[in-house]
C-alpha cells in the first residue's frame, strides 16, 4: 500500500510534450482511474510512476519519498498491460513465479509456491497453472497478468487498459472482479483507460486527462454531475451531456439556435450569475423528460432501444438534443413530442472558455 | 473450416508441386553426384556415359586420409599379406600406389584442415552472432545518436567484394604476424559476418515487443537479466537463422583462406582442390573430401531446422 504524489510533472519526447505540469495525488488504498483519449498522456503517466521513463521536469513521490533516481525494479510497483506482459514460452505457473524469482526479492521456494497458489485461487486460474500461456483465452491471459501483479504484493498496482483487448461481456465481468479484488486487497490501484464506463464503475476517484493536462479530478459523482468544463462534460456519460449554446435572461434559459426557453433554477437566486454573457447549458440526457404539456416542441429523430431505457434523439429546429426515457415510453419516428428539463440539474459553462461557472466562481 | 477450392486453384496447386519437385531435383543433383563419386572405384568415376549402378567402396576415403607416393609396380604377395585391411582396399582396386617415400603410409593433411575449418567457422560464427545480437539490441531499444548513419556505415563494409582488399589485408597480416593463424581467419570472417549479423538481428529484435522486458524490469530484474531471461529466448529463432548464414559463409570461404594460409591454419576449401594437382586427378578422393566437407553444414542446419522454419509466433496475446 502506498500513497503516490506527482508534482509538476512535464514530460517531453523530442518536440512533443506528452505531459504539462501534471499534479496528481493518489491516496493509500484508493482505486484511481485516469481517463483520457489516446495520446492524452495516460500511459506516459503510468510509465513515469513505474520508472520506465524519467520526467523532463517535476518530482514523483511514493510514500513521501522522492523516487526520481530509482530504477523500475526498486520502486516495487506492479504493471499490468493491455498485452504482452506474459511470456509465451512459459507456463502460467512459471509466469506467476517469474517476478518472485528476481534476485532482489530472495523469496524461499516454499513461499513462492504458496503465493502462486493463493493468487491462482483468488483469480480462479488454478486449473490453468500448467498450461502454456499461448493456449489461454484473452480473459484467462488478463487474469494471469493480474496474477503476476498480485503475487508480488507490490506497493502500487499500475494498470494500462488491461481490459481493452477483451470482448464486451468479458470486460464487464472482469471489471466487477477487478473492483472486488481491489477492495479485498485494500491496495492502491492506478488504472488507465479511455473507456468512461470503466472509469465511472470502478474508480474511487477519476482524473480526466486531455492533451497532457489533467483537467479535473474527483469522485465519479463529482465528475458526472459537476464537470469542470465542456471537455469533461463530453468525456463521461453515455450518451454524453447535451451542450446547448444560449444565455440567461430573467431566470430563464434562452437556447439561441433552437429558439426555446426553459426555466433555470440557479438564476432566481441573488445576482443571477452569468446573465447577459454567452453561455453553454449542459444537461444530462436523463434530466430531459417528455411530458404532454411541456414547454418545448420537438420531432423524434431517432430511437435507440437499450432495454431498460430508450435513448431519443430529438430535433428542435436544426439542433438535436438527446434524452434518456423509460423503455415503456412509446414514440414513433418523426412524431411531435414536448419536453422539458430538470432546472436543478442544468450546468452553466462560459461559452468562450468552456469552464463551468460553478468552478470558476 | 473446409476450404472450397475451384478447379483453377487445384490446377495451380499441382503446377506448384511439380515446380517444387523440379527445383528440388536440380538442387539435389550435384549433391547426389558428389556423394556417388565419393563411393565409386576410381575407374568408374569418369566413365562416359556415367556409371549409375556400382558397388560402393570406401577406398576413396582411405586415400583421402592417407598420404602415399606412387610406385611403378604392383605389390608382391608378401606385401599384400602384410598390409592392413584398408591398404588392401587400394590394392584390390588394381592400383600401384601403395607406399609413401619413407616406406610407410602417413596421415594426409585433410583431418587437420577439416579441424581448422571447424575451429575458424565455429569461433567466428559465435563471435559475429554474439556481437551482432548485442549491437542489434542496443540499436533496437535505445536512442542511439546518428542511428541511421551508423547502421548504414556498418552495412557499407559489405559493399565491396571482400577480395578487393585481399592484397592489403595480406600485407597487413604479414606485418603483424597474423598470417597463417587461426585468429587471422577468425578475425576476418567475424568482420565480414558482423554487418550481416547486426542487420538481421536488428530486424528480429524490433519484432520482440519491448513490453516483455519492461514487465521484467518492473518485476525486479536488471536490464541485463531481462535481456538474458526474456529477450534472448524470444530471439532464438533469429539467432539460429543468423548463425546458420554466418556459419555457411565462414565455412565456405575460399579466397581469403587461400591467400592468408598455407599450412598451419589452412582450411578445407583451399586444401581440397590442391589435391587435384598431385599426379593424375583422382576425382573419387576429391569427391570424398567434398562429401565430408558438406556434412557439418548439413548437420548444423538440420539441428536448427525447427528454429529456421518456425514463424514468428511472438506475443502471448495476439494482435
TrEMBL record, chain A:
GO biological process entries: carbohydrate transport
Superkingdom field: Bacteria
Gene3D superfamilies: 2.40.50.100, Nucleic acid-binding proteins (2.40.50.140), P-loop containing nucleotide triphosphate hydrolases (3.40.50.300)
SMART domains reported for this sequence: AAA
Location in the cell: Cell inner membrane
Family annotation (InterPro entries): AAA+_ATPase, ABC_transporter-like_ATP-bd, ABC_transporter-like_CS, ABC_transpr_MalK-like, ABC_transpr_MalK/UgpC-like, Mo/tungstate-bd_C_term_dom, NA-bd_OB-fold, OB_MalK-like
GO MF entries: ABC-type transporter activity; ATP binding; ATP hydrolysis activity
A Pfam family recorded for this sequence: ABC_tran
Record's keyword annotation contains Iron-sulfur: no
Residues covered by the ABC transporter domain: 4-236
Similarity comment text for this entry: Belongs to the ABC transporter superfamily.
Name of the protein: ABC transporter
Automatic annotation (TrEMBL), chain B:
Protein origin, superkingdom: Bacteria
Leader peptide range in chain numbering: none
The name this protein goes by in its record: Binding-protein-dependent transport systems inner membrane component
InterPro entries in alphabetical order: BP-dep_ABC_trans_perm, MetI-like, MetI-like_sf
Keyword Transferase listed: no
Membrane topology: Multi-pass membrane protein
Residues of the ABC transmembrane type-1 domain: 114-304
Biological process annotations from GO: transmembrane transport
PANTHER family: ABC TRANSPORTER PERMEASE PROTEIN (PTHR32243:SF52), MALTOSE TRANSPORT SYSTEM PERMEASE-RELATED (PTHR32243)
Transmembrane segment boundaries: 12-34, 118-139, 151-171, 183-201, 230-251, 283-304
Subcellular location: Cell membrane
UniProt organism field: Mesorhizobium alhagi CCNWXJ12-2
Family: Belongs to the binding-protein-dependent transport system permease family.
Main location: membrane
Any one Gene Ontology cellular component term annotated for this protein: plasma membrane
Entry keyword set: Cell membrane, Membrane, Transmembrane, Transmembrane helix, Transport
Amino acid at each position: 500500500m502506498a500513497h503516490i504524489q506527482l508534482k509538476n510533472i512535464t514530460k517531453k519526447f523530442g518536440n512533443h510534450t506528452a505531459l504539462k505540469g501534471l499534479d496528481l495525488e493518489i491516496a493509500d488504498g484508493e482505486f484511481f482511474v485516469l481517463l483520457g483519449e489516446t495520446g492524452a498522456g495516460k500511459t506516459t503517466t503510468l510509465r513515469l510512476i513505474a520508472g520506465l521513463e524519467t520526467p523532463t521536469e517535476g518530482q514523483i513521490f511514493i510514500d513521501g519519498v522522492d523516487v526520481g533516481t530509482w530504477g523500475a525494479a526498486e520502486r516495487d510497483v506492479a504493471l499490468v498491460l493491455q498485452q504482452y506482459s506474459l511470456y509465451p514460452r512459459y507456463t502460467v505457473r512459471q509466469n506467476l513465479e517469474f517476478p518472485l524469482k528476481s534476485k532482489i526479492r530472495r523469496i524461499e521456494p516454499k513461499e513462492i509456491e504458496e503465493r502462486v497458489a493463493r493468487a491462482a485461487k483468488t483469480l480462479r486460474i488454478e486449473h490453468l497453472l500448467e498450461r502454456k500461456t499461448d493456449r489461454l483465452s484473452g480473459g484467462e491471459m488478463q487474469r494471469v497478468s493480474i496474477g503476476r501483479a498480485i503475487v508480488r504484493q507490490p506497493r502500487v498496482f499500475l494498470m494500462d487498459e488491461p481490459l481493452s483487448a477483451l470482448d464486451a461481456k468479458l470486460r464487464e465481468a472482469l471489471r466487477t472482479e477487478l473492483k472486488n479484488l481491489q477492495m479485498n486487497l485494500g491496495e492502491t490501484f492506478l488504472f488507465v483507460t479511455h473507456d468512461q464506463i470503466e472509469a465511472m464503475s470502478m474508480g474511487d476517484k477519476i482524473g480526466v486527462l486531455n492533451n497532457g493536462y489533467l483537467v479535473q479530478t474527483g469522485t465519479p459523482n463529482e465528475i458526472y454531475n459537476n464537470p469542470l468544463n465542456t471537455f469533461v462534460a463530453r468525456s463521461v456519460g453515455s450518451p454524453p451531456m447535451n451542450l446547448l449554446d444560449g444565455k440567461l435572461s430573467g431566470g430563464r434559459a434562452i437556447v439561441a439556435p433552437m429558439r426555446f426557453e426553459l426555466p433555470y433554477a440557479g438564476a432566481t437566486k441573488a445576482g443571477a450569475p452569468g446573465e447577459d454573457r454567452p453561455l453553454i447549458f449542459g444537461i444530462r440526457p436523463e434530466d430531459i423528460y417528455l411530458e404532454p404539456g411541456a414547454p418545448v416542441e420537438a420531432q423524434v429523430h431517432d430511437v435507440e432501444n437499450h432495454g431498460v431505457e430508450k435513448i431519443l434523439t430529438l430535433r428542435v429546429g436544426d439542433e438535436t438534443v438527446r434524452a434518456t426515457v423509460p423503455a415503456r415510453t412509446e414514440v414513433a419516428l418523426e412524431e411531435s413530442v414536448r419536453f422539458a428539463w430538470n432546472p436543478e440539474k442544468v450546468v452553466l459553462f462560459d461559452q468562450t472558455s468552456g469552464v463551468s461557472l460553478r468552478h470558476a466562481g | 473450416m473446409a476450404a472450397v477450392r475451384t478447379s483453377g486453384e487445384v490446377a495451380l496447386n499441382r503446377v506448384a508441386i511439380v515446380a517444387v519437385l523440379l527445383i528440388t531435383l536440380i538442387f539435389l543433383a550435384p549433391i547426389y553426384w558428389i556423394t556417388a563419386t565419393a563411393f565409386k572405384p576410381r575407374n568408374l568415376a569418369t566413365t562416359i556415359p556415367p556409371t549409375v549402378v556400382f558397388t560402393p567402396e570406401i577406398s576413396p576415403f582411405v586415400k583421402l586420409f592417407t598420404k602415399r607416393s606412387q610406385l611403378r609396380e604392383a605389390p608382391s604377395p608378401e606385401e599384400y599379406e602384410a598390409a592392413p585391411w584398408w591398404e588392401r582396399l587400394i590394392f584390390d582396386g588394381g592400383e600401384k600406389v601403395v607406399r609413401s617415400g619413407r616406406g610407410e603410409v602417413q596421415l594426409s593433411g585433410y583431418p587437420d584442415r577439416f579441424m581448422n575449418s571447424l575451429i575458424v567457422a565455429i569461433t567466428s560464427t559465435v563471435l559475429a552472432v554474439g556481437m551482432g545480437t548485442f549491437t542489434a539490441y542496443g540499436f533496437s531499444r535505445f536512442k542511439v545518436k546518428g542511428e541511421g548513419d551508423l547502421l548504414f556505415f556498418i552495412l557499407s563494409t559489405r559493399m565491396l567484394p571482400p577480395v578487393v582488399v585481399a592484397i592489403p589485408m595480406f600485407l597487413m597480416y604479414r606485418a603483424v604476424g597474423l598470417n597463417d593463424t587461426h585468429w587471422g581467419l577468425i578475425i576476418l570472417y567475424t568482420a565480414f559476418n558482423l554487418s550481416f549479423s547486426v542487420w538481421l538481428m536488428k530486424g528480429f529484435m524490433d519484432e520482440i515487443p519491448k513490453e516483455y522486458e519492461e514487465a521484467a524490469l518492473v518485476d525486479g530484474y536488471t536490464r541485463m537479466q531481462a535481456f538474458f531471461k526474456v529477450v534472448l529466448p524470444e530471439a532464438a529463432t533469429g539467432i539460429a537463422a543468423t548463425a546458420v548464414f554466418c556459419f555457411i559463409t565462414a565455412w565456405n570461404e575460399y579466397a581469403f583462406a587461400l591467400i592468408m594460409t598455407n599450412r598451419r591454419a589452412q582450411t578445407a576449401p583451399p586444401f581440397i582442390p590442391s589435391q587435384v594437382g598431385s599426379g593424375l586427378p583422382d576425382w573419387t578422393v576429391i569427391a570424398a573430401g567434398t562429401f565430408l566437407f558438406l556434412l557439418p553444414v548439413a548437420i548444423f542446419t538440420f539441428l536448427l531446422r525447427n528454429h529456421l522454419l518456425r514463424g514468428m509466433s511472438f506475443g502471448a496475446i495476439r494482435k
